[in-house]
Amino acid sequence: MTDDRRDDRRDARGRQRGAARSRGQGHRTSQAPSQRRRATDPARTAAYDVLREVDASDAYANLVLPPLLRERGIAGRDAAFATELAYGTLRLRGRYDAILSRCVSRPLDQLDPEVLDVLRLGAHQLLGMRVPAHAAVSETVGLCRDRVGAGPAQMVNAVLRAVGRTSLSDWLDRIRAEAPDETTALALTGSHPVWITRALREALHGTGRSTDELADLLEADNTAPRVTLVARPGLVEADELTAGDREARLSPGRWAPTAHVLASGTDPAALQAVGDGRAGVQDEGSQLVTLALAAAPLGGRDERWLDLCAGPGGKAALLGALAAGRGARLVANEVQPHRTRLVRQGMRAVPDDAVEAVRTGDGREVGTEEPGAYDRVLVDAPCTGLGALRRRPESRWRRTPADLGTLTGLQSELLGSALDAVRPGGVVAYVTCSPHLAETRLVVDDVLRRREDVERLDARAVVRDVLVPGAEIDLGADDGGAGGLDVQLWPHVHGTDAMHLTLLRRTA
User: Fold this and answer.
1) What is the topology classification, in CATH, of domain 42-169?
2) Domain of life, per the record (predicted)?
3) 428: which strand partners?
4) I need a labelling partner for 13 at 20 to 30 A (CA). Which of 35, 213, 270, 302 fits?
């Protein structure tokens, strides 16, 4: 009887139909297969468009996504979903490429970039977010049909189903087992280029930390940072920071007395103090090194300060507020005119009598043009930005070892200019948002080898002096390079960007 019923369900071409269809109760869509699920939701579309801007225009996601969400009216949970999808995909691109390469029949660089970005977005939903597998696949296929075409959508469907058949932990075990060495395994599973992974291992060792921390460091780079505000001293009090948003919640920073952590879900731009420049969004490590320069011991006058590479202006605004409270004046110098405008905008709340000038100029020339003219000088040197990979995840895929040669030469010139511009007895802070030894200790050592009028200060002692009262900070072993005097912060240890600080005093 069972066989007869099955025969009754076959059509004239011998294809078996479902029970409803055999009784004439089925529904047949009028759409061709290529027209089904042609689109996806606005949040996924926004994330895809951000990835395309990053790839095609070398844009930064943190500059593209917020205005895009505002223009399209994407807010609340949808905005949070789009943000995690875009940033998470960019951070974990290397991991997902290693997985996708095992599910695609040809090398990934032979795929159209648009298709590869769709696959990465689907992989992140399947393996990095709490999205049901069927939704991750169907919505990503719909996105592909809408943005790329029906043909590639079939391939995307097949590949993502293959990805989803294996758990993330099993994928990572497979990648580790097939990697040629431990560093490559960490690089692939931790989603960093191999050369950066090696450099971070060397930096940990060179600053007195254990290389066993490398996996934790890579994981910290792949974790979205908290939004931290700076309350610029003398311009705003802590209890005024949430004005303009009754739902905003703040907690004190861990290290810097000026730092306040904003609870997730609050747009800092909605806060009145941020809007008028009395406060700003600034990493706590960035605040800490700025406070250290202002607190470094100084002999003689303390009247004229210089931020040599001031753009985009966060440190300059904090320095300006500190200078105002001490009766000093700040010169903010920036080589790029558009960044000079950002500095001027960022310093709009600093009292006029504390700002001598916001100007455009080549920092390498200041030491010749104004020798011995300043009491404190900040050199926030252009660098690879390897210390802020959690904040700018696309940077890791753009930087190459070749960048170091150009940057370290520039860093040495800027530091030399700063040391010429500071008076004897004055202090220079050399700062980079990179832990790479070539950009930190080796630059300073190279400059000091050619001078006899500079001494290294104990930056660790100064940083400890400016901490929140009662805070105890782990700065690594005392013999960790530079005689244990320099400071290197780390995302996995301090919850900050990987900021480096060297303090130097000009002698007679």
Assistant:
1) N-utilizing Substance Protein B Homolog; Chain A (1.10.940)
2) Bacteria
3) 377, 504
4) 35
Q: How many residues does the chain have?
A: 508
Alpha-carbon gap, residue 134 to 178, rounded angstroms? 29
Q: 50 versus 4: which is more confidently predicted?
A: 50
Output the pTM of the full model: 0.89
Distance CA 488, CA 480 (A): 10
* pLDDT of 5: 42
- Compute the distance between CA of residue 312 and CA of residue 346 in angstroms, rounded to an integer: 8
Task: Report whether the peptide linkage leading into residue 312 is cis, meaning its omega lies within 30 degrees of zero.
Answer: yes
pLDDT at 508: 79
- Residue 418: the pLDDT is 98
The DSSP bridge pattern shows strands 500-506 and 422-432 to be antiparallel
Residues of each annotated binding site:
309-315, 334, 362, 380
CB 307 within 8 A of CB 359: no
The Cα–Cα gap between 160 and 22 comes to: 33
The superfamily (CATH) of domain 284-506 is Vaccinia Virus protein VP39 (3.40.50.150)
Binding residues for S-adenosyl-L-methionine: 309-315, 334, 362, 380
- DSSP-assigned beta bridge partners for residue 430: 379, 502
Which pLDDT does position 14 carry in this prediction? 44
The tokens describing 220, both together, are 């910290």
Distance between CA 384 and CA 437 in Å, rounded?
Answer: 12
> Among 237, 324, 239, 228, which Cα is nearest to 285's?
228
**Residue carrying structure tokens 């089925």:** 26
Q: In the chain, where are the structural domains located? A: 42-169, 227-281, 284-506
pLDDT of residue 6: 42
| Phi/psi at 17 (5° precision) | -105, 160
Asked if 276 and 348 count as a contact pair (C-beta separation under 8 A), the reply is yes
Terminal alpha carbon distance of the chain: 106
Cα–Cα distance, 33 to 39 (Å, whole number): 13
Domain 227-281 class?
alpha beta
Active site residues: 433
C-alpha to C-alpha distance for 191 and 372, rounded to whole angstroms: 46
Q: What is the DSSP letter of 377?
A: E
Other CB atoms within a 10 A radius of the CB of residue 485 amount to 18
Q: 84 and 224 in contact (C-beta within 8 Å)?
A: yes
Query: b/e for 259-274, b at 16 or more Cβ within 10 A?
Result: bbbbeeebebeebebb
Mean pLDDT along residues 305-311? 98
